[in-house]
Amino acid sequence: MATDVIAPTAPPRRGSRRSAIHRTQNVGWLFIAPFLAIFAAFLIFPLIYAFGMSMFSSTLATGTKFVGLENYLKAFTDPLFIGGLGRVALYAIVMIPAQLLVALTAALVLDTLATYLSKTSRLLIFAPYAIPVVIGALMWSFLYSPRFGPAGTLFDLFGLPAPDFLSAGTIFFSLVNIVTWQWSGYYMIVIYAALRAIDPSVYEAARIDGANGWQIATRIKVPMISSSMVMVITFALIGTLQFFTEPTVLRSVASGALPADYTPNMYAFALAFSYSQFNYASTIAFSLAIVVFIGSFGFLFLTRRQSGLK
Q1: Total tally of structural domains belonging to the chain
Q2: Which distant-in-sequence residues (6+ apart) come within 8 Å of 268 by Cβ?
Q3: 215 and 223 in contact (C-beta within 8 Å)?
Q4: Which pLDDT tens digit goes with each residue over 268-284?
Q5: Are residues 42 and 121 in the same domain?
Q6: Which of 37, 139, 163, 283 has the most CB atoms less than 10 A away?
Q7: Full domain range(s) for residue 167
């Protein structure tokens, strides 16, 4: 009985394989081309243009002339810019630990709950992050108002003077409260996700060894999510150094407690749109970017062991 002999297929040629890979890569570039075009048009090119502006000086007397790094030397000796950096640094020292403490505590508590209440609580804690920053700041400006806010109404019932949370002496803590309320839920989700990724057998082994809940939380959970904690602190550091929206919104109701140069971003905004000093405003913006980069890189370098970097 005759049998059909199947001839072996020849292996694909190297050139045809390369061409197939090349075509696949071209298709991939075609899909991401719209994003790259928008990214370049609205981020890369404006950054290049703004950096070019920062290298020039424009005045009515001398016109526009190239000054090189002179604007940057001026920026890093500008007392208004240095003062704004000092304020955001102080905010970072106070705000970041506050946000981290609230987020970590909430995540640890929710990680120990296995009921429907944990899902509801997780949603409620995260909800402030879903509110636009401008809307949240406007809402808190109403709550802080000594005339219309609930605190003022409550003090009026007892015939006591209402506290002014928007005065120069209290505005710092009022802004800390707003930002902590706004961002702690987001950081809680990041930490909670890292906690849920830990193998439960680690906790079981710790309980067998006699560890209680506090010891498991402080000696097992927190060390095992150190990389996520580093990421959260890095995000908080970058956001705090770029502090802008909340003080800008509250400035109109804070009765002089928030000057136009309160933060570096507010200073750059005022220079550009109040005094038409676009060149120097670009310099301030890039000078702040340099500070943010150095601060973030320095923190990541110091915590490279905890974050898993070498």
Answers
A1: 2
A2: 281, 282, 284, 285, 288
A3: no
A4: 999 999 988 999 999 99
A5: no
A6: 283
A7: 77-307
